[in-house]
Amino acid sequence: MHTEVSAHERIMVALDVDTELEVRTIVEWLVGKVGYFKIGSQLFTRMGPTAAKLVRQLGGKVFLDLKWHDIENTVQQAVRAATDLDVAFFDLHTSNALKTLRSASAARGSAAALGISVLTDLDDKESKAIYRDDCQATVARLTNRALEGNLQGVVCSVHEASFIRKFPPNDRLLIVTPGIRLDGDNLHDQKRIASPRAAILAGADYLVIGRALTEAGDPFATLDRIVTEITTATFDRLSIR
């Protein structure tokens, strides 16, 4: 785990909203209090590149979460367009061709390329239907592809993070974990979820948190709880090591 990153910087807030006003409200509230703002398909389809430009204008850093899965040239050109938007992270499926992964990494500029493994709304049954193997085995295999493709990190659930982190050279990969929920939170459409504390103890570097924070009854108190869990878990992880 990259211990030089502060607890606040480990938080990636998902901007799962539809309007410029909502983006402004969330970013202006959280800029400087979290590390990154994740722009996914919902917001990008509504606002396009303007969404990333707005976050950058407001002083935020962007994780462009469009999960590209296409032929090499298409993905490479998408990566180049993302670098023009000055994003800090972007992602693509590790089930792309290996040459596509390598081309994306070569075109990334200063951004970090993350490989999508198994989405957190899939369980073992769904994973076997799609990938012919359970979640853990599939994530392990796709993590190896991320390494072969020269990617800087992977996106996986906390449950697989603890498994893949055990094996070198996985220790050089960034691990980004969605599906983060505090105890008692609504699971929404996620299946493989975990708390901020569990994510850090599993070896995650960055935690994607959306509705659990942005739709919280008391978002200020919720953010404090998240930061506290990350801080104490980071200390405990260092103590264990």
Q: How would you characterize this protein structure?
A:
The protein is of the alpha/beta class. The chain has a single domain (8-240), classed as TIM Barrel (Alpha-Beta Barrel). Helix content is 46%, strand content 15%. It has an 8-stranded parallel beta barrel, surrounded by 6 helices. Strand 6 (153-155), helix 8 (158-164) and strand 7 form a beta-alpha-beta unit. Helix 4 (72-84) runs parallel beside helix 5 and helix 8 (158-164) runs parallel beside helix 9 (196-202).
Write the layout of secondary structure elements.
Layout: E1 11-14, H1 20-30, E2 36-39, H2 41-47, H3 49-57, E3 62-68, H4 72-84, E4 89-93, H5 98-106, E5 112-116, H6 124-131, H7 135-148, E6 153-155, H8 158-164, E7 174-177, H9 196-202, E8 206-209, H10 211-214, H11 219-240
Parallel strand pairs: 1-2, 1-8, 2-3, 3-4, 4-5, 5-6, 6-7, 7-8
Helix pairs in contact: 4-5, 7-8, 8-9, 9-11
CATH architecture: Alpha-Beta Barrel
Which structural class is indicated by helix and strand composition?
A: alpha/beta
Number of helices: 11
Instruction: Supply the CATH superfamily name.
Output: Aldolase class I
**Which sequence of SSEs, written as H and E, runs from N to C?**
EHEHHEHEHEHHEHEHEHH
Distance between the termini: 11 Å
How many extended strands?
Answer: 8
What portion of residues is helical? 40-55%
- CATH fold category name: TIM Barrel
- Radius of gyration from the alpha-carbon trace, in angstroms: 17 Å
Low-confidence spans: none
Largest sheet: 8 strands, parallel, barrel
